[in-house]
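Researcher: Following up on the earlier apo prediction. This time include the ligand. It's zinc ion, with the SMILES given after the sequence.
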Amino acid sequence: MASGRDHDKATRLWSLPFGLILGLLLNPANGLIGGFAFAIGGLWLSPDLDTQSRALKRWGILKTLWWPYRKLIPHRSVFSHGPLIGTALRLAYLMVWCSLMLLILQPLGLPTPLNMAQTLIELLKREPQAAWALLLGLEASVWLHLIQDGDPLPVEWQRWRHR
Ligand SMILES: [Zn+2]
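Model: Understood. Below is the ligand-bound prediction.
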């Protein structure tokens, strides 16, 4: 299994080529979005947020947001390291926190979670390619992480395979 340092190094190394390829396939702006998403996916939204990791430390005081996630999800389980599932769950988890914060900060005149969701959906409808570039970047960084770990299958699947 690769160390946190190895994961960081590979993320930094592959962000630019990934963004360039995506830029050629889609357009430069979406290549930039995809490259940034790749870096963010590897350095901040890593599958290793399910354990004490460098990615977790990067959140600074906000790392406490990931405490329930770490308690609920065993390290290297399908829910953090599963292709598509891991990214989907982390994004959903962040959205729950954002919704909670918006609710708490309602007295300051911030939009309601429902308004925010509607704005987000409109944005995704207006810029579908950018949304795909973002999701592809996040997910590709997870695949790099899994490939580096040597076995792209999360622990549960390995157990199932050996049954
Ligand atoms: Zn990992």
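Model: Residues 4-152 form one domain.
Researcher: Noted. I'll compare it with the apo version next.
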